[in-house]
Amino acid sequence: MIEILAISGSLRAASTNAALVAALARNAPPGCHVTVYDRLGRLPIFNPDDEAERTPHEASALIDTVTQADGVIISCPEYAHGVPGGLKNALDWLVSRDAAVAKPAMLVHASPRSLFARAALTEVMRTMSFALCEDVLEIALLGKKPPEVENILAEPENRLAMRDALSAFAGFIADR
User: Residues 6 or more apart from 124 whose CB is under 8 A from it?
Assistant: First the structure.
């Protein structure tokens, strides 16, 4: 079983990115299990003085969860042409650890307009030595209300796209 950790970079209750990663978990193909990380807002602000034996529990739990996963999927909104602070904070907790080194990762998108955040996140993750999968999943959910989002994510072609993206990512993980 391939274990994939899915992270939404948004803290909004009605986040389309969170809805997308939850839908990925529901549509995982056989042989894949997707766990959604939902504790982004509980992470303390990264401080290098709080590493090693002083690492806060929430940060240690994130590090352990990433370490144990076979791969990581991130769905990230764009705020002011960049990566949201909460997601960047989570990545900062991983910087000096081995959790990200050569860890297969894939980006998925709930908005076709997040081009600056995509570029910034890609740069950060490559710098951290994640092994980025070139396959990308995009399902346009921008501006949709929760019932519309769920209807879009339940459409057969989108469910198939999610399964295909997860299968491709599982293949990428297996080839590493």
Answer: 83, 88, 91
